[in-house]
Amino acid sequence: MGGGHVRVLRVFLIIAVVLGGLFVGADRWAVGYAEDRLADRIQARQGLAGGVGVDIHGFPFLTQALAHDLDQVDLTLGDLDVTTTDGRKTRLSQVEVVFHGVELNGDYSGGTARRAEGSALVGYADLSEAAQPGVSVAYGGSPGKVKVTAGVEFLGKTLTRSVVSTISLVEAKDAKGSKIVRVRADEVPGEGVPGVETAVRKKTDFDRRLDGGLPSGVQLTALTSDESGVHLTLGGTNLSLAG
Question: For the sheet containing 229-241, what is the strand order?
């Protein structure tokens, strides 16, 4: 190959590298802009005081955007305040949701995801806030167990009782597919006195909805407990992403 051809080839390679760099730079700027805009809309829609993190996966982003179809969008909400069915407030921590197959709407302000999966944590202090007045909740020593302690009024005396309870998800009667968190004592020592178990269970057993405030369509699908709190598994199909 002659020297002239080598020089021409070298020029073409330099141009290709420069154009490639410009494209990558433009693509990363575009994805950053889209992530910030989507985060702002989600924060406004959810009424969140804290920050919202959005991470759009896949390269190049621009070709996905032109097709109005994103492979994966990760959403990090951090702490999320929720209101239970009886008006009590509590907090979900470390809320993270991954949306798959997001079809963007016309103005790129949101979209619909084919499915989502995620997780959240309810600390024991927050779970105690969602329980009955005067009730504290702690780890029960094994997955799916919690220890519930309550002061119980019985025959003019205050009895302090701690019980190991099972925490589980059950179907909510008023919302199709929605779940409520249920805490039920495995056993209540009655000490041979009629009515003690009933009095204790009125304080230690409770049901709570904890999905209020989650992104639209995201539901609780499973849970377990350990020393750090109650870990919630989230999921959903055909759900809105800041639409």
Answer: 53-56, 69-83, 89-104, 111-122, 229-241, 219-226
Task: Report whether 241 contacts 112 (CB < 8 A).
Answer: yes
Which tokens is 25 given? 């730079």
Q: How is 40-64 classified by DSSP, letter by letter?
A: HHHHHHHT-SS--EEEE-SS-HHHH
pLDDT digits (tens, 9 = 90+) for 190-210: 666 677 888 888 889 999 888
30: Cβ–Cβ under 8 A, 6 or more apart, which residues? 61, 62, 65
Whole-angstrom distance, CA of residue 108 vs CA of residue 5: 46
Do 118 and 98 touch, CB atoms closer than 8 A?
yes
Are 141 and 167 a contacting pair, CB within 8 Å?
no
Distance CA 99, CA 70 (A): 9
Q: Would you state the pLDDT for residue 167?
A: 96
- Please tell me the predicted confidence (pLDDT) of residue 128: 92
Q: Please give the C-alpha separations between residue 211 and each of 47, 59, 63, 104, 160, in angstroms, as whole numbers.
A: 15, 33, 35, 25, 31
SS3 108: coil
